[in-house]
Every structure is written in C-alpha cells, then in structure tokens.
Amino acid sequence: MASVICCHALHLSLFMKQYFSWGLTLASLGFSGCAMLSAKAEPGVRNVTLGGHSYELSQITDSTWTASASPRPKVLEKSPTATARLQQAVEMVSGCRVTDSDYSRQGTQFDAQVTCSGGLGN
Length: 122
What we know:
Elements: H1 2-39, E1 46-50, E2 53-61, E3 64-69, H2 80-94, E4 97-104, E5 109-115
Antiparallel strand pairs: 1-2, 2-3, 3-5, 4-5
C-alpha cells in the first residue's frame, strides 16, 4: 500500500512539475511580448532626412510639432541654416507653414508652431 501511495505521489509530483514548467514558459512569453510592444517606435513619429541630417518629427497638438535629431539624444545645431532646415522638415511633414519656433530640452528638441489656414503659402 505504501508503494502505491508513493507511486501516486511521484506521478502527481511529475504532473505538477510539467504544468508548472508550462506556466513559466507561458508567463515568460507574455512578458517578452510586452517588452517587444514597448520597444516599438512611438506612434506618430515620422522620420525625415534633409541635407544629410535625419530628424524624428512628432505632432503634439493641431498646431505644434517637435523635431529631434535621429538617433536621439543629440544636441541640434542652432545656426540659421539648421533652423531653416528644421522648419522645412516640419512644413514638409505637416503640410502647414511654421509661424514660430524655438529649441527646448537643452537644445535636443526643436518646437514649431504651425498654421494650416493657407497651407504653405505666405
């Protein structure tokens, strides 16, 4: 009788180990799936290359766009030529005219206000 109980306990132990192993496998797949989702690019980010410079542009509101160097983080050049290039990138992607702009986040982000009431026409 003791050997039968021992045998049943052994089968139960193996059965539990198998299901525990499957549970760990499924849990790890679930966690890795979450990690893969968070590693994807931000929604609404558009990549633009102008004059050999790559930028990531995002629309924040109907009239506000941001641009950052790609890959991030990188301080953006603040020359008149670089500012004009960033404005051009925002206008290309938004289809609107930049009316005001400045740099933020210690110079790593270009913020632009746009107006779409007349398209790109001045």
